[in-house]
Protein 1
Amino acid sequence: MPQQLHITNGDDFSKNIEELQLPGEIIVWREMLCEGPTSTILDSVEFYKLRKDFLGKTYNIAAEDYDRQFIDELNKLTVANGYDEVVLWFEFDLFSHINMLAVISHLLENRKNIPVFLVCSKRLENEKEFTPLSQLPLKHLKNHYEARIPLELEDLETAALIWQLYNADNPQKLISQIKKKTNFEYLSSCIRAHIERFPNASTGINTLERNVLKLIETNNIKTRNHLIGYILEYQGYFGLGDLQVQRMIDRLNIFYEIDDIGVSLNEKGHQALNATKNFYQELKNDEYLGGVKKYDFLYDAETHKILKL
């Protein structure tokens, strides 16, 4: 039986992998690279400083916790030897895919000439519906493992290129990668989701933020926690977690009110949703998406292009 190195996206899911009793070692990826500033080379002073500063300021994650939870695991990956296969366990969404791109780039950077396989969310034959990996029963998770996808060198190089472009100064260049054929079934959708995270040229809110306002308008949402649940359920390819959703709705608080009746849009919320006013200036901050500031670019919904300010 081949010795495998399993790289999993988070602690909770890693427990499921352990229960499968697969051969080899598990490395747990504990980062959220879809948020905040990043740089291409993971094992670098620049990358560590960017991430520690961002995560400390935004989520109160102490530097020593980051060392233990992420850097120690990354070091294991850097020195990993003697494995016959690397198996990547990542979901279909943008959150997971950005992490996956970084992992693959690091593997190539460290010349890990080991066959790489991907286990990703998809509906297999005889399965009635699409279910994320983290929600699969062990029996079905084992089926996904046995149907793991071999990644060709071209797939790996494409992933590394997209990670490089994500950290570069022109997100427009990512658009050319959307139509590229690879063995990553959801990569194109994730690139589109990332592009639509930049503020809309007409309204100043991005696609996900607009979806949040639409959820408030069309549903009888009673509380803040109720709203968080709706966003987590209906966010599509973005894949945000609880903490990220909470931070987003805090930024959007100029658009809605919460009272004894529930959550409702105010005048600004209706204006943003109906595109009768542009809120770019009110929302503008120094937030980063990879290598660029979010508000240094605009998304044109008609042409699906990114415009630099």
Protein 2
Amino acid sequence: MIRKFILRGILFLAILYCLWLTVGILRYKSPSLKPSARLGKEMRGTYHIHSSLSDGKKSVEEIAAEAQRASLDFIILVDHGSPNRESLDAQGKAGDLLILAGSELSVSRGHLVGLDISDYAGVFPQDAEAAAYAIRAASGFSVIAHPYSRVPWSWGEHVGYSGMEIVSAYSALRKKPARALLFLPAFVFKPHFVLLRLLKRPEANLRKWDSLARNAPIYGYFGVDAHLLYRPLLSFLNLHVLLDQAPGEKFLEARSQIFSSLREGRFYNSVNAAAPAGGFRFHGSRKAGLIRMGEELDWEEGLALQVEAPFDRRFRIELLRNGRTVGETRDRELAHAVRQPGVYRVEVYLEGGTPLPKDVPWIVSNPIFVRK
């Protein structure tokens, strides 16, 4: 009798689980992978990808084919090495796709990504600060990789690191193995649904980023850290790079444009699997003219900031100063008069109709730094 009761209970729970998972899968609509109308000076790509040239499972050619299917404009390989010259040599074009590369260095404080380092002829130092200086001396720039993951970053003095990863897909998956098993059956049908449900608000990353940005310009990156599962990951988290002019036809010219925008913080991040985010804008104005995202300037009277989010869905815009909300709206635009210095950035949250957790931002801009 007791055995029958237990079996019925297990069967009942199994049915409830199947219904719960089925409803979630059916309610989620995967983002379109069809080429959207090009937004001119905006390019969408995926950052932090490992190929078989280090510890990834697919070749550069196979990854490029997946990226083309995801309608990406560019991908950024960061194969391990000091630097990884094979990966740097693999840069080029595959149809309309730009294949860019840097290298993920194992240094004394953790993992550091060096970008725009193709002309570096030596071996990067193992000391983190020395490596950052060497990357800068080679006209490159550096990004702190997954600072709160299995290889945490040991924070020291800021020595000119250009950016830090504020979301890492691989780290998010590793931190929730039990929860991943709960959604495992859904991965076959809707992998993005599972990835979205596994995302957690990167509170420590955001808090540290806001702290660092108060003293020096440092930019935030969404990275996938892909070693496998390339098909869902490439269109999961994206960088949206804003160019001064349409990308050049020649590879080296287009590569220089993208790296210049990344170097100067003229890009924003999106959880693209939750909803397409192309067209978002964050900028400002002053007497001298336009203020671009990523720019550092002195405070003066008459500074104003503008957020534009031309999306046909429910969302909430939050404007933050030094990590605290100073403006909020559910409209498509937000205007803010700057009355005091600070580090201003934007987070956009989806409201309803998405498996993305409510406290995980769909879009994260890079800051505009208003100094004393």
